[in-house]
Design a protein that fits this description.
The structure is a single chain. This protein has five helices and four strands. It has 170 residues and is an alpha+beta fold. The protein is globular, with a radius of gyration of 18 Å. The mean pLDDT is 86.
Amino acid sequence: MRKSLFSTGLRWLWLVLVVIGVDLGSKLWVMNNMALHETIPVMPFFNLFYAHNYGAAFSFLADKGGWQRWFFAGIAIAIAVALLVMMYRTAASQKLNNIAYALIIGGALGNLFDRAWHGFVVDFIDFYIGGWHFATFNIADCGICVGAALIVLEGFFNPSGKQAKQKGKA
């Protein structure tokens, strides 16, 4: 029997497009309305701070001469392809997994676009307490982190032992 697109996790691809759209739209707004390294205070613990990140999370490998741009682009493509395959193999009814995969794919592709188009990732979300600032990030990073957290949570809600027992009863 042939699978329908809507019976698989690919049914959730619309969420990938939402994450990409919100991410790229917010980055475009920042680039058009702020100067590089400009800060706009929003709340007592939150600023908009326009930064370019040439590396990965926490500017990992940012100062390595440019090869990391393509390295991280390759990783983003590999992750997106692997998660698309997983979505295809997962039933659409497994919402938590599919939402997590879609958020991660959307975030990876949002940052991939930045790397390919600009050569860096636009970051602008700056949380802080007193003088301590968390690493500046963007909406794509939020999608990746929330997606990863959902995968971990899904492990608690549906442990593999519970799945094995359900399969044994069928």
